[in-house]
């Protein structure tokens, strides 16, 4: 049992009162006592953290966070579980940060040492909106230092959390999918029920999602170390989910190598394993517009990409890049079903040229 007091700073992109309530519920499931913080001075009084650290990148409107006291969870678990929180602050002597790596930053002020720890979900969101194209472990350390007020970090690469955010961090953003689950909501439901969920003889929890969709619940379960099984009648949904799960474990170097290999294969003359053809409902649109050559160009381009990906030697990278191609096509060709009648589809051609497809 850790009797320390923590300041849990709310994510600055939390704007809905319902999200604040979820954040409070998360905190209450992890700490014995949780108090809402309306003013930065309350934090300074409680734990001695100077005002400029409390107010830095905090919400414009109160509440700005919570003062939480007494927990059975380690700082490592708090970093994993708290998903509406931007920063976790406490005095350095209250926690064991040995082997904690990039996820915390130590600041010294007024004769005291404080720890600023970065929750995983906030890290994913902030790095997703940063100017860093391929984040590395060192970038997590840089982000943590930036949030804790290190003036040496350049703002050109790390954006202030108040500049906006995303509700689909890391692999959740892979492939366009309508009406997907809000990842924070799923994580909140899981975290608050961890102690009450049934466990097997080995003490493990297994999650079943009978309508897996784009895999949000399965991904959040995996990130929390929970075994999960998903079922869906839609083959594309299953493929998207599998690709996201693959993306959690595949090495960045392996993905980079696969992308480079596809780039090389695009310049070679490959035997066509299959020739892509638009579904009849879409090809009829080209016929109506009198642009069969445009249809042929798109089909040839898609075929080239599809065959190049299928020539990759490893199944995992084939699946992952295949879903990336599907994502690009979904964003290029917007198909909308009107009403409930069968066959009532409309296709829109977006303004970016076809070559933009190949660059995504």
From TrEMBL:
It comes from the Bacteria. Residues 206-230 form the Ribosomal RNA large subunit methyltransferase K/L-like methyltransferase domain. Pfam families: UPF0020 (PF01170). InterPro entries: RlmKL-like_Mtase, SAM-dependent_MTases_sf. This is Ribosomal RNA large subunit methyltransferase K/L-like methyltransferase domain-containing protein. It comes from Candidatus Moduliflexus flocculans. The lineage of its organism: Bacteria, Candidatus Moduliflexota, Candidatus Moduliflexia, Candidatus Moduliflexales, Candidatus Moduliflexaceae.
